[in-house]
Amino acid sequence: VIITQGKYIASAVQVEQYPEDKMKEIVFMGRSNVGKSSLINSLTRVKGLARVSGNPGKTQTINFYELGAKLEDREDRIDFYLVDLPGYGYAKTGQENRKRWAKFIDEYLLKSQQLQFVCQLIDSRHAPMPSDVDMFNWLVKHNLPVLVIATKADKLGKNALQKNLAVIRKSLGVPDLAVLPYSAVKSEGRSELLDVIGDVLVQ
Ligand code: GTP
Ligand code: MG
User: Fold this and answer.
1) Quick check: CB of 85 below 6 Å from ligand 1?
2) How far is 149 from 131, CA to CA, in rounded Å?
């Protein structure tokens, strides 16, 4: 799969603000600062498309990016959305904010007819936090297909990475779960993720 374009389309906190054009959606979620926006930029190769920040809580809305994909054995281009969600488990947002967050994100995740799968990003350097485990279980409970991605893989050596991938699988309660290591810095995992996206685009 070759990505031919990436552009920002819309930000939403309610249904009326979702883009009017309906296309397949691939969603990115994870704790604040885990690297969601960086992954979107590395996937599209458009620098600064999604805002990256050292301060957790940068992304506060559901952000839609339109991408074009050129598949090997097809002439036409297939357009789809990458959807960047606000991080969860961000302490500073406070109780009231968290409730609001949960509501508009839940609404999106449960009602979208175009959602293909959710990429749940977990920091490869640490064991999943309780909020990661809760979110994973919530997605599974609601029959949303999940691809777990272990981010910032460049920060670990090979052996440490393998060890932590096993910890992630075990903590999520699925010992044989496929976890995709990803580095936005080195573009590691990019072609594997594009293959998965390509598969759902031709379905
Ligand atoms: P929120 O929008 O606040 O929820 O954060 P986010 O999940 O979108 O994270 P973001 O992409 O803004 O990245 C957070 C920090 O991690 C930034 O300082 C990035 O430069 C850094 N980062 C993200 N991905 C990688 C990676 O693959 N490797 C390394 N070394 N750093 C990364
Ligand atoms: Mg972000």
Assistant:
1) no
2) 15
Q: What is the pLDDT of residue 106?
A: 92
What phi, psi does 71 have (nearest 5°)?
-95, 145
Q: Which domains, ranges and CATH numbers included, belong to the chain?
A: 2-202 (3.40.50.300)
Q: Is 169 in the pocket of ligand 1 (CB under 6 A)?
A: no
**133-158 pLDDT tens trace:** 999 999 999 999 999 999 999 999 99
Q: Is the pTM above the cut of 0.90?
A: yes
* Ordered DSSP codes for 103-163: HHHHHHHHH-SSEEEEEEEEETTSPPPHHHHHHHHHHHHTT--EEEEEE-GGGS-HHHHHH
Find the mean pLDDT for residues 37-65.
Answer: 85
Place of tokens 């685009």: 201
Q: Is 151 in the pocket of ligand 1 (CB under 6 A)?
A: yes
Ligand 1 lined by 122 (C-beta under 6 Å): no
CA–centroid distance, 136 to ligand 1, in Å, is: 20
Which ligand is closest in space to the CA of residue 121? 1
The residues whose Cβ lies within 5 A of ligand 2, an ion, are 36-37, 58-59
β-strand 115-123 against 146-151: which pairing, if any?
parallel
